[in-house]
Write a structure and sequence with these properties.
By secondary structure, this protein is α/β, with parallel strands linked by helices. The chain has two domains: 4-202, 3-Layer(aba) Sandwich (Rossmann fold), CATH 3.40.50; 208-300, Formyl transferase, C-terminal domain (Methionyl-tRNA Fmet Formyltransferase, Chain A, domain 2), CATH 3.10.25. It has nine helices and 16 strands. It has helices at 12-23, 49-56, 70-77, 95-99, 121-127, 163-187, 208-211, 219-228, 294-300; strands spanning 4-9, 27-32, 37-39, 44-46, 61-62, 83-87, 105-109, 117-118, 132-139, 149-156, 202-203, 235-239, 246-256, 271-273, 278-286, 292-293. The strands form four sheets. It has a seven-stranded mixed sheet with strand order 5-2-1-6-7-9-10. Strands 12, 13, 14, 15 and 16 form a five-stranded antiparallel sheet that branches. Strands 3-4 form a two-stranded antiparallel ribbon. The longest helix has 25 residues, at 163-187.
Length: 310
Amino acid sequence: MSLRLAFMGTPAFAAASLAEIAAAGHDIARVYTQPPRPAGRGQALRKSPVHELAELLGLPVETPHSFRDPAVIADFQALGLDCACVVAYGQILPKPVLDAPRLGCLNLHASLLPRWRGAAPIQRAIMAGDAVTGVQIMQMEEGLDTGPVLLSETVGIGPEDTAGALHDRLMAAGAQLWPRALSALERGVIEAAPQGEAGVTYAKKITPAEARIDWSRPAAELVNHVRGLCPHPGAWFELPGGKAPVRVRVLAARTEDGDGAPGEVLDDALLVACGRGALRLLKLQRAGKAAMDAGAFLRGTPVAPGTVLA
């Protein structure tokens, strides 16, 4: 037995799930993903990781600009689906789409709901200093990540984990949930547990302004800020000098003892005073340059003690 499915997703995080669902032998009637986007220096159109994998697997792909288009909805309804599997698709699905498959639409979310509903749960968990997170498959509703949970896997967050490292572990754990969830759904032996509203938090999209380092915060918070934004979009500060300040991304740091005005460089190896304690900058990247360790950075861009970073 197999289910007739649609898969809806876009980034590499979703492609891992598509691979596992396809390997489980289900009938994937259609793959939906975001349209190709300009990328790279030449701004050539690039297909999403899900698009590329679907073509490799010989699956039919659609890239609608909006799932609110009546023609797109009608085409989806005509597929006669048992279920739709959604992973980081990037579009809001209206109620007629959610209701079209016989068993509804399921979504893989990278947190332990109801904590970190929304767009950036991996980054937010690290930035908040959480020690644990996870992946869950839930039944989709019209609300933002509010549906009942069908299956969960808990994943610990280590003290040195970056968003990139945690992303990869959650991607693998989440992909492996799909065959179990779909098998149980097919046999009618899976139970959905309501989330409740206790402990709800929202993982808002990270803005460039929010990624800027606020040196008045404690160093212990800022090291989580750096970890949670690595590798993208990257925590950043401005280095004074020349005609204009230079934006610098911080990709690794650690807390140390130190005392000074917030943002003040305390030694010749990039120890920076914070609101409480200090932050040793270990890996940095100037705009348009490769990432490098602090020693290499300082050889090309000297930063004297007493400099105040903004």
